[in-house]
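ok so I'm stuck.
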Amino acid sequence: MKKIIKLTVRDVRFPTSLEQHGSDAMHTDPDYSVAYVVIETDQGMQGYGLTFTVGRGTEIVVCAVEALSALVVGKSLEEIVSDFRGFYRLLTSDGQMRWIGPEKGVIQLATAAVLNAVWDLWARSEGKPLWKLLVEMDPRKLISCIDFRYITDALTEEEALDILVKAQTGKQQRVDQMLKEGYPAYTTSCAWLGYSDQLLKQLCTDALNDGWTKFKVKVGADLKDDIRRCSLIRQMIGPHNTLMIDANQRWDVGEAITWVTRLAEYKPLWIEEPTSPDDILGHAAISKALAPLGIGVATGEQCHNRVMFKQFLQASALQFVQIDSCRLGSVNENLAVLLMAHKFKVPVCPHAGGVGLCELVQHLILFDYISVSASLDNRMCEFVDHLHQHFRSPVVIQNAHYMPPKDPGYSCEMLESSVQTHQYPQGQVWKKLQ
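replied:
not stuck anymore, here's the structure
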């Protein structure tokens, strides 16, 4: 029995705002950060988890993790995974803490960090990378990890099990394919909103030389500027490579339709987060208006939970599902969304970047292809080339593809030297900036 005897959480921040990395129309000065969780067992094993933030407010997530820790410490790993659905519900349905959710906001970010650490511990204890733990898990066991409460009108346990059982056919070939070729990725690193044209051109040229064919551009602050930058990128990447645009929630519904119509000549595959991430009917209206232009709507990085994804899918309000490994309630809730997306025949193209999001979400999208969708049509995973050097098992990109991780766990473990140097506010990096 591996009993969890300790949980620690630290506020780790990187001053990315100094060079405008991550800047977009809504988040103009992000300092990429994490609430970083380590759980320890009485047998000396550790599990690592995190949730991503953009600076100020990380200390609030840390407080929420500390509030949840009493529900975790004292339990054994075996006890948790034998009824993972029950454990998920324990964290999300605490009779008092549920009031400050439920299953959304800071408390759900904290839940994700804690559960990410538990999944990392489980995968490590089995000696497998997380994607392999999921792929090799018995379908009934996998289903038992998911809380189906509130989504059975869209996906029942029986339907979910049927999806997994049907996908057993050809599974080993897909595993072999991923190990050889990797999962297709797109880059957001070239065109942050705060970057100069000169830097944008240089990064685009470098990316093309490195084999990238799919590019995302931040838009939404100034229409003339967006027209100029989209024109520049389209000229750089040519007519046959893929372009996506991302407004990061900047517009009202009517404004989104008008603005994106003006950018349609640059042939974007999708407009991402065109309006409030909570406005399901607004996204549906935008989807309907842009369909004749061949432009889809993508969203999900700030979608609270499986219930909201259910409604987005039911309302035909998005054409690309963007799961996030830290916004939803860890692997458990992401599994529910992957299965719903498959039922509704909507491709999943995960959100990544930040600190550690690429490291985590690669496991989920590998599982989706191998064990759920069995399709790469209109599918790709975001990649941002920032801060990977701070992880013990950083992502490996070859020919613009994510190569499957080989190390046991969920790829969450950060280098202790990086954690100490960037811990806020007492780390050496932050002392220098004060």
